[in-house]
Amino acid sequence: MLVVVLDLLAVFIFALTGALTASRAQLDVVGFVFVACLTAMGGGTARDVLLNREAVFWIADPRYVAVAMVAAIFVFFTAHMLESRLKALYWLDALAVAVAVPVGVAVARRMEFDWPVLLIMGMVTACIGGLARDVVCNEVPLVLKARDLYATAALAGAAIDVVVFWATGNALFSALACAGLTFFIRAGSLALGWRAPVYRSRPPRM
User: Fold this and answer.
1) Domain locations in the chain?
2) Phi-psi category of residue 138: left, alpha or beta, with phi > 0 → left and psi -120 to 50 → alpha
């Protein structure tokens, strides 16, 4: 039940970010729905395919598609009311990533995979949808921007989820710790300018 609730929440929030990106690209309502669904379900679809689950989550349960469509149509009629759609997009995306990482970890854990797979599935679930959204709408993907702690936040959240579950055996505690740390790092990047070290090219030695 925890996984289902978090998954539905992640789908809804990611769909909002997809629709906001569609509004910035000035797409029609069908474009809104398409980009919202791609964003909301891209990460989970990649996760389920990689884990070889019996059925991809939104095919097994059409409620996810309905939730994404509702979010897209809602944004289509209300996006103009936002003072800054880009700022709203960034913060909603941060919240969506924080919700999606523990879902990916929980799904892989329930299938009894080892911890490296749990880390990767947390990142895949949180990052692939946003990556697809930005590529389709011809934007520089947030996950690839050097000035944003995006994949780093997802990896750190997945890692704390694994550690807390190993220490306590409590899935709720580990999911909350994961979501909290992921959002904390992502928010720090947005609000305080936290950065990870980047590669600097140097001239070759003589």
Assistant:
1) 2-192
2) left
